[in-house]
Amino acid sequence: MGGPLGGIRVLEFTQIIAGPFGCQHLADMGADVVKVEPPGGEPWRVFAQFVPLESKTFQSLNRGKRSLAIDLAHPDAQQVIHQLVEQMDVVVINYRPDVAQRLCIDYDTLRAIKPDLVYMDSTAFGRRGPWADKPGYDIVAQGVSGLTASGARFDDRGVPILPSIGVPTADITTGYAIAMGVCAALFYRSQTGKGQLVQTSLLANALASQGGPFMSLPPADAALRTPFLKYLDEARARGASYTEAAEQRRKLISGRQTGNIYYRNYLTKDGAVAVGCLSASLRQKMRDALGIDGDPRDDDPEYDPSNAKYIELGEALVARVEAMFLGRTTDQCVDHLEAAGVPVGAILFTEELDRHPQVIENDYVVALNHELTGPQTMVAPPLQMSESPIKPERASPPLGWHTDEVLRQAGVDDQTIERMRTAGALR
Fold first, then answer.
1. Do the bridges between strand 49-51 and strand 54-55 make them parallel or antiparallel, or are there none, so unpaired?
2. pTM above 0.85, yes or no
């Protein structure tokens, strides 16, 4: 396969989202990725199947790979996998430490077979500490990392819900970290000849996406972080509810945004728009476009968002601007603000974007053909490269589609393959 990782061989022991997404990036870049699954398929393959052993979620995360369906607990499996590892450049795994060691696919075992191996180890919470052996999925990582609390969203019973429904933020960011870590380690190996262990986790990436709130910087924390932590200690001491604490955090944040008309979403007569003005010059352009004379946050050096006078002025300004947007259609709002140089866009739905001219003309859609389920379109790789083009060449693999091919390439004889298949260890 072509691409910047052409010739690189990857053995993937991952499932669900983060690991498969990361390895899909490697496959997109030209690596030969062999995905190892149990003979019955990994959990995401069998979740919401639309035909037997095929789900949309699985197909969206596993294009470009070859499928090896093998029972890793079978007596012959260890030798087979170790033969495969001899030919690999990279192993990616997201199993718990005890599972990897029990199956003899841990880093120490595999680097003894292949000393220059790049071994990418992805976990829920990291390999050390009280949560090291704790299993975890995106929803748990979002919860313990503060992502869920940052959304301050609740259902009608007050139960916290994820900030973005259907967007597994910790998984997706971890997938990017997996691909980045593998590429960095491969570059290091090309310079030194040395393989290495690379580690990442859902927790690490969920925290990385919240750098500002996580960061402690006392001179800058007086308005939000310090008072909130003080409140939180007191609230937990008296047994306050999660809802109360989340609402207090939201109030502290929204208090700093008094009169914010510049970086937010608006309802229009027939939809909604997003506006983003993060500099004084852009804020002035928006005011000019809307016919607003001034704003104390830019005009008054003594501006204090906690001052009652400014709170009242800010609330009145927000109400006035909201009414302006509601009085116009989405197209009218976008056209008017764009003409004034204001960053603005209609709020769209993901499902409609594969037919949008901006998406199409930038080649953000790729058309593939699945061996079992036929033609499909998918979001293209997020990178475009002029000298080593990234172009997906095949859809996700049917379960076990390449089992015999992969094993024979590793030198496994036909008798072993037949014996294992008869025993139900291969598909």
1. antiparallel
2. yes
